[in-house]
């Protein structure tokens, strides 16, 4: 006993050292011991893990169950023979599973079922699938239930993903700089690859698999052609090998002009046979190394990137040429619709639709067009993109930005689930009422969702503890676009902070995105950001080369009013939506106030639903935003002692930064709009801390993530 | 019992998860349980920690002792009352310490003593000092003894640092890019400072304190003037506050032209009263925030940096102007002697001496001139810098490069202790025989040693497990320049890998630096590196703008011979050394073969001590270098199972990379020198894997650390 006490002490000490403090590295896979009663309940349904197949992915599933259930129950749960309370995992290749005659074929390549059954007279839980990766997903699902402290009794779960491509887009450069990254450097240590396989690569793949993400585009859409050279492909091959057993395929962003830059050709014209041949040979070279390579992501003729337009060819002609090279290998082309021409005078919000909608039906069958959630660029609030529903004969995947370029970087707590849910549940009215964006995505033969990754070398992966929730929520919504942001928040909070605090943590999260909208850009305002890095407010900026780079282009505030007239009397961007929506959104009386200034230029004196004038309402929204952050600070302070100290301190400090920056946003915008409107502050409103000139003078040249 | 068993299991599981695996974050402060016998011995001498003073630094010392001794013994060792085996810590402000009448005043501001004594009739160990920081250093010293598994009986240690300034120079930019950094981003997260105090800042300070480092220059010597703006000074202030209790002062690299760039002045002429006034005001501003600010580090008129030379003033005039601004506050100026003019045709190895030696005695008394260990630039082997011993009336500190810009980046195992020891023990013969570089440093009224830091955001701090040893060794040698590299290696290995493997680990380390010299640049060759990033071989490079940027300038190989004639018949750089050395090194017959080609251009047919010709010897050295790496791989493989798996795997993979890159260096250099010499490979030598053209074609544009 003394001996074991000494051993316990040694363990206690080993675990107690600060380097062992919780720092967020474990993400939502913490597996800390549950309260005794819950632990006992879980343990009774998890006496052992039974696996008949030797498949690597199924081995990983078993290992994860043993690791997770051991951690949650505080007991050593390992592989063993069938017995009461066993967890039996596998596919029909396992005789024991096959004998159960489960409807596995109907689950598809990634689906699974988790069911309480009786095997050889013993009550057990079975996790079964048609393919090994389904077993892995099922294992993580069972662990999620246990982590939430819920019962493992009478389970009858059947799941299959609603979308086929669930991918992270990494805007990572070959020098490890991450464009719009706020979580350190790129996870990919190209200098040490392929020689060094950082264990973190495995942890990354495991975290993705735990939420159903099945693809990773490794490099920036503003792509270096060098990524397609043999020197880099050997490195990419190494990562693909590490990710494969976790069900994750690698993709690469392809620079359209690569045939010139690394191929020595004179042109990249997609209709030039030599160009097509070069891409075919390149695809063959890649698949010789990576048989399950996913394909290419392409940003073409956008923000200075080369593309088929340079040769008078259409996006379809460019995409289809690449698609032909990938087709024999089963790869796909993800072609971005995020385009706005350098010259076009047309409202930027209209350009993607104008350029792509006419191409509906012209894309090869292994091309999927990647459309941002909204028509501008990942703003805190945008209406859904008008292309959704408008290209019925073209597969569309939705691109969202997990990294918070426009929502306060890593230090602002902003849970994006509600923002994505808002878009996914939007009714496109195309072809008819009830056809939501989620349905549009799910119904196309090639389906998918892409998220611009927020992960990097920061110890907590995402730059903050709460930004992990956005990575998690993306995976959940890509698996099931109808999943609820509130349910996802509660699950994440229970897994990441503990079931006991899941509700208060989720409550904070659910109000956080509206808070950012309120203190940055309420009532449909957008793109008021400082130039380049987008850190902090710059509503006054009017000196950039292109009109549609300037905030004044977007808010159009003057002495009469504020807002972008996108009705028929203006740019008529609203006309790109289905008639029913165009009618509702085109009328300031019926458009939701949250989108008022997106679609309308409105007089300052206009009466709002609150009874306030627009000017009073605008100021009130800014004040509400700051108040909402203050409220979050209070809610978090109340959790001190109920979560581990190190992570609590980090979040507290970040909330203090957010509070100060919310005030900065509120003050700068109110000072500016008061000046352009020539209006005095409403009675009782606290004036900005500094004069407008002070805010205009703020310079933050080293803010992270700015493209270069 | 069952309950405690369950608890043990929970702990076991919590400790067993991979995220808890050893990743190197703990450095040499791991405090893992010692073997039972050693643990019992330590525990008997560490029953409790007794502290009477409430000083923050002394509290940290007590906490470190409790943490470390608890970890090492597996017992809970905490603060308590005096008893047998207690550890009593403090200064004379503690009545108990004062009563012992120890010679504390003689210890100076940073010295300490650790002594086995009897207090109130009980045998205890006392750690005492004149100042709190000495107590902290003493605590780490006692822990080092315990970590090595050595006895805490009959201790009688009296220590004081031989050098006053023991500083890390961080070549870190405001955007977190680290010039010549191979360990991730800068530790300083300027974007989140001052709002977020990353716990890692404390861990950094603690690690430095544990080896006696007492200063940190936070920013790159190629300095941004923005570092001196209020926006950054508030961030610097925060770091200074965190570092202070650990005995660490912050310094800043100052850009000499800052008065123009951020001060709005027309000139930065050091003799202009407005310029002097601006720097005085800036110093006052800094000290108002940071009362113990260390001072400025300046790189002037070197590699394009501005300096007093731009105004026809001397380095002394520039340094003294800054020194006058710092003087009232007790700050110092560290002025770098690393200069080589853009135009001067003079041998680059001579220029620092030519420019600075005549200034001896002209510097203010709070200026210390920072001289690199050798006359060129941190090459794998250089003779000591001729300025050491040549400026008797000027304080000189030695600058070494901990980060391995020229020794294989993070993936090559190269313990630098022997390199620094070689320089520190070099006899300058000035003013007389026996005056080693170490003595030159230690005797000056302002003394110090600076190391270009190798730490960054990588989890293991230094980019590799073994590079931690170079950080550690720098601290030890800065504290005592006569400390032995072999003793330091054994201490580090015991603390970092465990006492049981200390000898075999130290043995690998001690041969590693010579291995790098052999496979990169044997026999006094230097600067054969590829352009810019210095990653890989480029002995053929001859097309850079400045002659002394080209490897061919340094090796001067031709059909007749190889080497740089620095004798009287050549540049006479050897004439900058004391006559006795100039004579020995100036004669190819008496110069050490390791420096032969540094000082002499020698015919390929020359007979070497081995009996081989120079050409045969050169090839043999390259082969030996590769063989030495292979030997290290074998030694490390033998340690599998004797150290933790994750760190062992990482080192194994890095050694495989090093082996391949050693072969690359060997092959490329032999192929090149065979061509220029027109010589066939000696009989039995394995030819290079590829033809010379292949090596010349290698491009690695994304190699890290390149200045920008």
UniProtKB/TrEMBL annotation, chains A, B:
Domain called Glycosyl hydrolase family 67 catalytic: residue spans: 147-461
Domain Alpha glucuronidase N-terminal: 27-142
EC number of the protein: 3.2.1.131
Entry keyword NAD: no
Keywords: Carbohydrate metabolism, Glycosidase, Hydrolase, Polysaccharide degradation, Signal, Xylan degradation
Ranges of residues in domain Glycosyl hydrolase family 67 C-terminal: 463-684
Signal peptide: 1-21
The UniProt record lists the keyword Coiled coil: no
Domain of life: Bacteria
Catalytic reaction(s) noted: Hydrolysis of (1->2)-alpha-D-(4-O-methyl)glucuronosyl links in the main chain of hardwood xylans
Protein family: Belongs to the glycosyl hydrolase 67 family.
Quaternary structure and partners: Homodimer.
Name of the featured protein: Xylan alpha-1,2-glucuronidase
Provenance organism: Sphingomonas hankookensis
